[in-house]
Amino acid sequence: MSDHALAARLATEAGQLLLRVRENFSDAPTEVRKAAGDKHSHDFLIEELADRRPADAVLSEEGVDDPARLSARRVWIVDPLDGTREFGELGRDDWAVHVALWQTGQLVAGAVALPAQRITLATPDVAPPPKASTAPRVVVSRSRPPSIALAVRDALGGTLIELGSAGAKVLSIVLGRADIYVHAGGQYEWDSAAPVAVARAAGLHTSRIDGGPLLYNQPNPSLPDLLVCRPGLVEAVLAVTA
Questions:
Q1: Number of domains in the chain
Q2: Fewer Cβ in 10 A, N or C end of the chain?
Q3: In terms of domain of life, where is this protein from (predicted)?
Q4: Tens of pLDDT along 107-120?
């Protein structure tokens, strides 16, 4: 099985597992449901990667960071449950599973599953988004939209769309439901690795908000800002954010 196919399968199956966990813990307190989701999905992904790619390192949001990954040639970067808050709220579908592979300096494969929407998008073949809307749609967190996203919205005469997880936000652009995702409130490598791989395969622009490169498998996994948008909007957005 290719790395692309494996990423897609693992993201999809982890998502199916999370749907079962959500149902089984539907009567439990929200925090218990969220913790169960994080643990079950993490355990599944770690076990599957150990079985199918035993020589590869893994960086997971829910795991202990092993510095051995820094000398590894191949590192899987996973977020077993991106959007834990939304997962905990029964009925919400804007949460995701991220599975990406970094190899010798580059993201080479990735998949993002939106389990509650029955959607998985994976490299290498991702359809480009359909035609953009007239007024750019800027996707933001529903709780605290970052000021930089509001500045982009104002400068481009756009509108805001509120969503939960980073994976759901990036896929909203790939699927043609939004046009720009700009974030400056703090993230980690596992928040963006798989979404960035999928966005690149769809022909979208991905970078830091100053236009600089996104670097993965770094000693400090913090990767605090992100820009994903349609190529035709890059110059206008960077005029605000860079």
A1: 2
A2: N
A3: Bacteria
A4: 999 999 999 999 99
